Amino acid sequence: MWLDTHCHLDAPEFASHLGEVIEAAAKNQVQGILLPAVKSSNAANIRRLVAQYAAVMPGLVYTLGIHPLYVEQSTQADLDLLVTEVKGALQDPCFVGIGEIGLDYFVEGLDRTRQAYFFEQQLDLAEAYDLPVVMHVRRSQDAILKALRQRRIRSGIAHAFNGSMQQAEQFIQLGFKLGFGGAATYTRALQIRRLATQLPLSSVVTETDAPDIPPAWLREEGVAHNAPQFIPRIGAELASLRQMNIADFAAASWSNAVSALPRWSATLNPLRSK
């Protein structure tokens, strides 16, 4: 069985056929999907979506946060709203942490000072409620590591990790898992494939970032968007890179995800026991 630890099911690309997307994932042995928020104003919509499809995908869960690419259009009122939404979600077993938050030093023109303020405010929120974080770490690994070391946040996921081996080891030392998905299926992605191969198995989780980061075969087949149903094939390629049995890799990545996001176990453990 598989988990997709990062999938934007609320993206417009899925709006017309979301039920079909989730059903296809379930039929392909995906038993859990994490839907990270990207702004505080869509929290209610995300909760509604998760509740609507709970019967199809009992392991469908969510995080709440403000993505660094949405910081420019966000205000202090959005941070205040996020605090309110998080407090209201604490009793919801489908709420598993703070995310997607972080820093993006790849996109030109983004205000790094403003990004840092929103990121650190959200880290403080996670620390206050002892919640894990799901982080966007694009070319910003060192700055994020510095911010994490200043706080007591016990776990989380560095999504779509593409840093150095040294940076990866530092995230692992801080209790974080590292997300690998479609990017690792490209033979030219030498650094990502090296990390996926050489990092401790206990540090790796599977993700799609759907509808983004399509795996190599989708590009070759002319398929427009990534989807959570492709997690098993992505996982099989990661297992192959590590010269592992696929079932053993799936079991390890499942356990790693629950370790990173402990609240997820409330919905996943009954499924695993079946």
Structural features, described:
The protein is of the alpha/beta class and 274 residues long. The chain has one domain (2-15, 22-270): Metal-dependent hydrolases (TIM Barrel, Alpha-Beta Barrel), CATH 3.20.20.140. 43% of the residues lie in helices and 16% in strands. The chain contains eleven helices and eight strands. It has an eight-stranded parallel sheet. Helix 1 links the parallel strand 1 and strand 2. Helix 9 packs across helix 10. The longest helix has 17 residues, at 112-128. The protein starts with a strand and ends with a helix. The mean pLDDT is 96.
Could you give a quick summary of the protein structure above?
The chain has 274 residues and is α/β, with parallel strands linked by helices. It has helices at residues 18-27, 43-52, 76-89, 112-128, 141-149, 165-173, 190-198, 216-221, 231-241, 246-260, 265-272, and strands spanning 2-4, 30-36, 59-64, 95-104, 133-138, 156-159, 176-180, 204-206.
The total tally of domains equals: 1
Widest β-sheet, arrangement of strands? 1-2-3-4-5-6-7-8
Unreliable stretches covering 5 or more consecutive residues:
none
- CATH architecture annotation name: Alpha-Beta Barrel
Continuous helix count = 11
What key phrases describe this protein's structure?
globular, 274 residues, alpha/beta
Write the layout of secondary structure elements.
Elements: E1 2-4, H1 18-27, E2 30-36, H2 43-52, E3 59-64, H3 76-89, E4 95-104, H4 112-128, E5 133-138, H5 141-149, E6 156-159, H6 165-173, E7 176-180, H7 190-198, E8 204-206, H8 216-221, H9 231-241, H10 246-260, H11 265-272
Parallel strand pairs: 1-2, 2-3, 3-4, 4-5, 5-6, 6-7, 7-8
